[in-house]
Design brief:
Elements (H helix, E strand, L loop, with lengths): L12 E6 L2 E4 L6 E2 L5 E3 L4 E4 L3 E6 L4 E4 L4 E6 L4 E14 L6 E3 L3 E5 H4 L19 E7 L5 E7 L1 E6 L6 E4 L3 E4 L7 H7 L21 E6 L4 E6 L4 E3 L27 E5 L3 E7 L2 E3 L11 E4 L5 E5 L5 E3 L25 E4 L5 E5 L5 E2 L4 H7 L2 E7 L6 E6 L14 E3 L4 E2 L6
Parallel strand pairs: 9-10
Antiparallel strand pairs: 1-4, 1-6, 2-3, 2-5, 5-8, 6-7, 7-9, 8-9, 9-12, 10-11, 11-14, 12-13, 13-16, 14-15, 17-18, 17-20, 18-19, 20-21, 21-22, 23-24, 24-25, 26-27, 27-28, 29-30, 29-31, 30-32
């Protein structure tokens, strides 16, 4: 290299987006992400509003960031580091990937590279390469807690503020809350989040999760609640206990049973998973989120629930009353005088009901939007044996995928995901 010549910085991968998705290198100049591939360099930040962003790294890792997500990338081509400040990301990691996925509460790393190497080499036939990939999703809430769910493969999860190490395997979902002081770099990333209306960013203030589902142990005792994103919050006695124990038949035959875990249930009763200390483990995806959300009146009395379409359904006494009534809420003066404020299990304000039980000022829009998504199978060009998974989302239209990842998703209202996802 001639004297004075500077090395050319190589991109860590490429990114593409649809609708409201943006990228920046300095945190000041934001550029829209389109269906055309854009290079992704060390120090870049990506945020999504109502859109999605797809990332294809040089090591073969594929990530798709769902609406209301913020991430930053650093490291090298061989060992990238992705920080997820908030949101939901679908992921596909090759067995050879050395990527580290970091949230405010957990560091995730491939089990292949995170554990001491054995003397015996692992060989994967070329025809079975796809079967060795890790498939799953990570959800990070505003409190910094995170949940990972895997459909294939396994990954190491190391909580930031404790020495324990979890090995998450296919079919499992593990939620770990944020404990102690958080990393300031995540607060800086979170401050870059797009507001619900898009446009200029506003300061994001973490709040309690609004959409919550009370959870009970097998004796019927109140142990806490699940947020809509699947995270679990320990809060013993937040509601009255159930009037009867949960039937033993409510635990699936294939559920993990061992002395150090506590099986937990929703009021139906429906099995949620097991508690290992404060962490929810062995919980399958969608066992916490996307359930009817019980609501309470100002006195803490159970009056019904919010369905997945966002509508209120009157069903008095569907859950036990709250142990402590919610704090008093004064509705705006233009609200009809016979309107009633309603709350979720953590006493978070949901909105108010008109005389005809129509819900107004609904604070559950984000939860309902997440529950409106369902995985769908996509058909990928390029020969037999190739397949992918897209995401069906109400109200959205077909969007472009990462350049070079050609596929066609069957059905209407589908958002394209990276090839093979």
């Amino acid at each position: 290299m001639p004297v004075g010549a500077q090395a050319i910085e190589l991109p860590l991968g490429s990114a593409a987006g649809s609708r409201e998705a943006q990228i920046t290198l300095d945190g000041k100049q934001w550029t829209p992400l389109t269906s055309s591939s854009s290079p992704l360099y060390d120090g870049a930040t990506i945020r999504t509003g109502n859109g999605v962003a797809s990332v294809l790294l040089k090591d073969g890792t594929q990530l798709e960031f769902q609406p209301r997500s913020v991430m930053g990338i650093s490291g090298s081509r061989a060992a990238p580091v992705v920080k997820i400040a908030i949101g939901r990301v679908l992921l596909r990691l090759p067995a050879s990937s050395k990527i580290v996925l970091v949230t405010p509460s957990v560091r995730y790393q491939s089990a292949t590279h995170g554990m001491p190497k054995t003397s015996a080499p692992i060989r994967v036939a070329a025809s079975n390469a796809l079967s060795s990939d890790l498939l799953g999703e990570i959800v990070v809430n505003q409190q910094g807690g995170s949940r990972i769910g895997l459909q294939q493969g396994e990954i190491l999860a190391r909580p930031v503020n404790e020495p324990s190490l979890h090995i998450v395997k296919a079919g499992q979902s593990v939620s770990i809350p944020q404990v102690g002081a958080g990393d300031p770099s995540f607060r800086a990333l979170l401050a870059q989040a797009l507001p619900p209306s898009g446009g200029v960013q506003t300061k994001v203030t973490p709040t309690l999760p609004v959409a919550t589902i009370p959870v009970y142990d097998q004796s019927g005792g109140s142990v806490g609640y699940c947020a809509y994103d699947g995270s679990f919050v320990v809060s013993s006695g937040i509601t009255r206990n159930l009037t009867a124990p949960v039937p033993a038949g409510a635990i699936p035959p294939d559920a993990l049973t061992r002395p150090d875990v506590i099986p937990v249930f929703t009021v139906e009763p429906a099995y949620v998973g097991n508690l290992l200390g404060p962490a929810l483990i062995e919980a399958g995806p969608l066992r916490c989120e996307c359930r009817p959300i019980p609501v309470y009146d100002q006195s803490g009395k159970s009056i019904g629930y919010i369905a997945q379409d966002g509508a209120f359904v009157s069903s008095p006494g569907i859950t036990p009353p709250l142990t402590n009534p919610p704090p008093a809420v004064k509705l705006p003066p233009d609200v009809p005088p016979d309107s009633r404020p309603v709350f979720t299990v953590n006493a978070a304000y949901v909105g108010y009901l008109l005389r005809d039980d129509k819900l107004r000022d609904n604070r559950l829009t984000e939860a309902v939007a997440l529950c409106g998504a369902a995985p769908v199978v996509a058909v990928v060009g390029g020969g037999a044996g190739n397949w992918g998974v897209g995401l069906a989302v109400t109200g959205l239209t077909l969007a472009g995928a990462v350049t070079g990842a050609y596929f066609v998703s069957q059905g209407e209202n589908a958002v394209a995901s990276p090839s093979g996802f």
